[in-house]
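User: Predict the complex.
Assistant: Input components as received:
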Amino acid sequence: MKTNRKRKHRSINNDNKHTNQKDPDEPELISRKNLKLDNNNNDKQSSKTKDIFNMDKKRNSQKQSSDNSKISKGKKNGSDLIKFRKDLPIWQERNNLVQEVKKSETIIIMGEMGSGKSTQTPQFLVEFGLISSKKGGIAITQPRRVAAISLASRVSQEFGTQLGQKVGYSVRFDDKSSHSTIIKYLTDGMLLRELLSDSLLLKYSVVILDEAHERTMRTDILFGMVKRAQEIRKNKNKIDQEDKNYEPLKIIVMSATLDTEKFAKYFNTSTILKISGRQFPVTINYASEPQQDYLDAALTTTMQIHIDQPKGDILVFLPGQEDIEILEKLINEYGTSLPPDKLKVITCLLFAALPTEQQTKVFDPAPPGTRKIILATNIAETSITIRGVRYVVDTAKCKIRKFNPRIGMESLSIENISQNSADQRMGRAGREAPGICHRLFTKDEYNRMEKDTEPEIKRCNLAPIILLLKALGIDDVLGFDYLDAPSRTLLKRALEQLFILKALDSQGKITELGRKMAEFPLEPAYAKVLIASQEMSCTREAIEIVSLLSVESIFFSPQDQREHASEMKKKFVSPFGDLITYLNVLRSYEVQKGNSEWCYQNFINRRNMKHVIEVRKQLIQLCIRMGIQTNSSCGNEYEIVLKCMLCGFFRNSATLQPTNNYKTIFSNQNVNVHPSSALFNKKVEAVMYTELVLTTKPYMKNVSAIQSNWLSDTALNIQK
DNA sequence: GAGCACTGC
């Protein structure tokens, strides 16, 4: 019998064992016993599973829609496309929808998945003559690039025009729109950027904010800015007669599930349209008692579904990569001991850091005689839809990144999801046929969950978004019309950070430097570095380092080859630390012209390196536009570029103590070099880092060796 | 001697 991989005991903070007494600033305790699975004892395992669910008693069927009309398949010609459109639930509502848009300034559309709201709404407006190129077109925002691109190409097809003409999209690095574009899909971040040069959005007569329930920081800011543009355009028409007449701005807020009352109140409207989706009923099974170990429960439940239930793939929601990899091993071990008459199991992993080729494997249908078990993070809740799923197993856990303004540190912790999130996960079982969702928590636990996930704006570092608001002319950021206002501590921290970077003056007004910084699609500290590099003649290196830091990691280390990977990494390592190490990788990558074989052998993440190259290109263009010489270089005198980095990150510095640990200079906290760093276990006098993350310990990431006297030099430099 | 939920400009 094979031995199971030991699971690490991950304990973050033993003082916060009880959820109800925990400090909201601190992550939840994560601690698990070692999971043992006896391969020769299948019966015992499956009978144990039966105890988890009271299947007969607690059966709860949730029927979302009875509209089971078939979607036409195969090659689509014009009439197929029309038939397809007519079959969408929203088609019946089109007259109503158009009338409501004519009547109201703002409407809210609540449409479930498969209702056709994202593709049809803009088309109806055009077809009913509400839009003309003279008045201004329609902008539809999406939280994700892929969604913006695929919606645009779908709609341009239905519209019978070439993509980029009447229907187009605009996302970072890729703009397929023209003067004649009247329906434009864009990422929410892209519309925020457009606000910088067109704060009243005069290019558009309708703005549609799609997927509003996701409440990204960017959509939340757009809510306020779009509402403001609508009011100003209306009032200008009243007051300023000689000024050119502004076309009124219509706002449409769309989402799957949302607190419509809250949105209606915020947007001063009472027009709410509800459109049913195309969803099959999903039966929910709750656990009969709370589960001690969600991974153990996920294993037993998954295997029991496999043994008891007819064919159909299983989707298991887990919080992170580590759990996914452990469960994969356990399921595969278990799978070898299945009776010969049962289907074989194949496992598919799905998380963001996985190379694209492996991600796309989840779309391959299960071969005959097998059942596919997909082990996924939150990525399968919103970003990726997989066909063939009939069963969902939900651990109710996900990882949440939070920013603690008091200590300026981020933390990543496993937390319970919200009810809306759980319902979204459940819906994944009923995309093509009725399904079953196994919740590894009790009905009572469900009732005690938060209704909605806390919006990003209440838990993230606000510095980037506050700088943008200031640049957009919103001086009173505390009084901004937020749908949900962030805490004063978060706001104050952001203002303070921007003041220290000299992006704001002591009155909180944006400075010339701040305006320049806001032009860059970067966090304020990085933008500051680029601007400072001009004087220090190291713009080339500064741009490259900033680009390299724009991806999660330029390395990859597959589970089974970690040692080999770290061995290969050594040849790039610089005594100056991580930033120069990354620069070395970029240099070699370019010598190799991005050769994929070279990347593979050196454990370089090619997808992320390509992104680095694109960011560099964009930053070079932006610098040129702002009159910054982009070819000034410090050559191999890396001290210069590191000093330049200090202009943005001087607060992120720590010195080595006689006790051999590091303490931050500004807040006197104990911090550690992250084990993935080139400077791990290397004792240097002082370090600068770009990120401080609390996981099992407070870890500094992207660490560079500096000298403490550089700090006073930089401080003087910054005062200038 | 650790680990990386997910996005976006």
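Chain A is about 40% helix and 15% strand.
Let me know if you want any component modeled separately.
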